[in-house]
Write a structure and sequence with these properties.
Elements (H helix, E strand, L loop, with lengths): L1 E5 L5 H7 L1 H8 L3 E5 L13 E2 L9 E2 L1 H12 L11 E11 L2 H8 L3 E5 L8 H6 L3 E4 L9 H12 L35 E2 L2 E2 L2 H4 L3 H15 L3
Parallel strand pairs: 1-2, 1-6, 5-6, 5-7
Antiparallel strand pairs: 3-4, 8-9
Helix pairs in contact: 4-6
Length: 224
């Protein structure tokens, strides 16, 4: 997968790239590249935003600046991009990120993430250059960078070979294997701590009963 992140703060992703599973993805040949729209802005002094028409607080990311950045990266009119790749704007009001969307994106060869800042994007960016708007929750962050990392993290860990054990990403919270329910509880040594004992079934060595118990616990956790 080639993941391109358009951000005014590319240095934020230096840390992200060093995280074990992200580093694994890079070693496997996937890419996580950052593109700074300031590098290609047609405006003077690195300007990327402007005051909103109609008045109001804050600044808005300009459509001409985002067009120039996308054009410089892909060498095409960005209006044609939605037909070629997933171009996702991070917005608080977008489609909520969930396991199904992460899985959908993990199947894409090329994904572009646009990080907003300030008041957000000029609406024409969303209308003409973007395939999806994605939100990581119904709250407002200062910028799209953390949201882009959340999306990237959820997507990259689904790629084969990225986690130490691929099965880790198969049977986990919200997965198809658990019928969309939260994961069952885990325990490790000691088997008894201050009288808090691990459920007997997990010590029984009876794999089928353990499997049934876990699925039952998972189902219970999905109940309102
Ligand atoms: C301060 S926010 C803009 C909020 C916008 N004025 C509004 O009220 O919806 C700046 C940028 O942060 C990102 N952002 C903030 N909260 C987000 C969320 N919950 N999910 C995804 N992106 C978010 C978006 O890229 C957004 O353009």
């Amino acid at each position: 997968m080639n993941l391109d992140v358009f951000t005014l703060f590319p240095q934020w992703f230096e840390w992200f790239r060093t995280q074990r599973h992200v580093a694994n993805a890079l070693e496997l040949g996937h890419t996580v590249d950052c593109i700074d729209p300031r590098e290609s802005t047609p405006l003077k002094w690195g300007q990327v935003d402007d005051t909103p028409f109609g008045g109001g607080a804050g600044m808005v990311l300009r459509v001409d600046v985002m067009e120039a950045a996308l054009r410089a990266r892909y060498g095409v009119d960005p209006e044609s991009l939605p037909a070629q790749r997933r171009v996702i704007a991070l917005t608080p009001g977008g489609r909520l990120l969930d396991d199904a969307l992460a899985g959908e994106l993990a199947a894409e060869p090329d994904v572009t993430l646009l990080c907003g800042r300030y008041e957000g994007f000029d609406e024409r960016i969303l209308e003409h250059f973007v395939t999806d708007q994605v939100s990581i929750g119904r709250y407002v962050l200062a910028g799209g960078e953390l949201a882009a990392m959340v999306v990237s993290d959820a997507v990259l860990r689904k790629l084969p070979g990225v986690l130490g054990k691929d099965e880790s990403a198969v049977e986990e919270s919200f997965s198809v294997a658990l019928e969309g329910a939260p994961e069952y509880p885990h325990y490790t040594r000691p088997a008894d701590w201050r009288g808090w004992a691990v459920p007997d079934v997990l010590l029984s060595g009876h794999h089928e009963r353990i499997r049934e118990w876990r699925h039952e616990q998972s189902r219970r956790r999905s109940l309102p």
